[in-house]
Input
Amino acid sequence: MDNTYHPLAPDWQVQQWFNTPAPLTLPSLRGKVIVLESFQMLCPGCVSHGLPQAIRVHAAFPREQVAVIGLHTVFEHPDVMTPAALQAFLHEYRIPFPVGVDQPAPRGPIPMTMRAYAMQGTPTLTLIDRQGRVRQQHFGQISDLVLGAQLGALLNEAPVAAGEASPFAGCTDDGCATPEPAGAAR
Amino acid sequence: MDNTYHPLAPDWQVQQWFNTPAPLTLPSLRGKVIVLESFQMLCPGCVSHGLPQAIRVHAAFPREQVAVIGLHTVFEHPDVMTPAALQAFLHEYRIPFPVGVDQPAPRGPIPMTMRAYAMQGTPTLTLIDRQGRVRQQHFGQISDLVLGAQLGALLNEAPVAAGEASPFAGCTDDGCATPEPAGAAR
Amino acid sequence: MDNTYHPLAPDWQVQQWFNTPAPLTLPSLRGKVIVLESFQMLCPGCVSHGLPQAIRVHAAFPREQVAVIGLHTVFEHPDVMTPAALQAFLHEYRIPFPVGVDQPAPRGPIPMTMRAYAMQGTPTLTLIDRQGRVRQQHFGQISDLVLGAQLGALLNEAPVAAGEASPFAGCTDDGCATPEPAGAAR
Amino acid sequence: MDNTYHPLAPDWQVQQWFNTPAPLTLPSLRGKVIVLESFQMLCPGCVSHGLPQAIRVHAAFPREQVAVIGLHTVFEHPDVMTPAALQAFLHEYRIPFPVGVDQPAPRGPIPMTMRAYAMQGTPTLTLIDRQGRVRQQHFGQISDLVLGAQLGALLNEAPVAAGEASPFAGCTDDGCATPEPAGAAR
Output
């Protein structure tokens, strides 16, 4: 069990979802380890490395344990990497997992979720633990061996069972602390 | 010298060119072996196999001997595989050779050049010899070894043998020969 | 912490060691996760898959956490896969981790350690946890992603700290159990 | 037809043959393009690159046109890379083409054929044309595309052009010509 403080993952701001009957949210996935694959459909490193690795993760781990989610974080060529183009891409490349379109920002090319996670580019792989906390974020390539080890460690952590004290919460003789810093109220 | 009858390659019908200062035509490339790589930017086999192979050919052979030309033969998702989207794709994937956009047909999804060459899909690799004749056409994957052997054979053929009438012909003191046997009128 | 009962790894019976100043034993590695790569130098799957994967593991994880050990388990062509041939092989292939030569059995082609671990062939990858227990054994290929996940899980388990009760030991009101079944005394 | 002067390939000096019912000689293969793959069984570049490429060539071209021949040119670790070890290696790696063991030299580590061809190491790929002349020799890696092109060019050459004096020559009504310029006497 990792008791270090890790920040909660920011909410996803998604304009449109594909490959899922209903929008996905972090709270609805609580208890699973989340592999968030942020990509652009015309980014060569995403197509040759990031997305194939995400597909391998999706195939290797049980859905009840690991949720693989794509996020189309367009910050280049927005006129051609539209949701309609993404839909054709997802179909042609047979992407099997849910993919959200990151909400464009009112100003500037970086969309909202990409900004909230402070991603440096695409592909970016973010690992979110069973408690909804960001534990790893990689820009560029990461080997299957290292990614597997990080997933294995996170999967080996107990989720917080219902009715159980959070590892952050903690009551002592002095009182009870909030499970999260008050400023992180969501 | 291969004296078997091979049909002349049909003219290219191109809507727009990229990566070249001027439109390219078959007659302007006469004397070179042409590798015509027909693809769609959202076709996975084109992105993972066809285009990388075309880039390897472009790098391995001298430009004076072998001309590698891309042809964007869109027959699916024409609304998103637009010339503007292709331009972004060529930039992101650093495609180094000229690429033409095949002219859409008045009716039906198959564009004009793709139709004239009777291509079955993408990727398709067409080999055109020094005399402008189609010598090989492959739909799908072809190994580097076999493609190399076909290129090596075509490169080893004289453009037009000395003292021999060119099949494209010409006029001598005796008169003007048809460039092709009369029965091959097109 | 995995409290399921897992058998202790059998001792290694090694005729000769390479790439290590002193023989290695399981007790001397206690506290580390051990990746035991059993191979034959003329086994194609070992050379193309098993050993390169072991080298990647050796490079990816800290030596204090993960010990990669090769075991030359010759059960075919013993006349040519001699320790002298192995030494040349290890040199040419630049194998960076310690390798032991499994002790030939008095009868039959299967050497002693291979037999004790009930391996089915080569390559075989055995994962031994920080407490010296066999936790996984794979004959043939295993993906980096799955191997990484298994390593990540084992690395996330606490070793038994000095002066701490063993997870196997356990005293209840009824008495104190031995940390291992008595029959497993070593 | 390449009329440049190219030296005749030196005879092979082979101690023992595998995968062939009878010893092979250059004259017996005259008319075919020969791909001679020189290797050592414990040379990593031979096992990972040279031999797999030779196997691909063997599979891609008709046997009547291209003869793939292996040559075990041991210049390191001769005590362990014996003919018996080679035999086990050829069996385990399922090498499908004939392989000769290069004759050790009376003095020095470089065996006789390797010396006669002035090879620089292993793997070395030598291309011998239909007339028995060395046309290309590559030490290290060569791409399938470039090798294919060289093979394609050699295959496109006539064995001996009709009505032309063979370079191996022969006798006419006028007498008997030497097969090679006199200075090349061997």
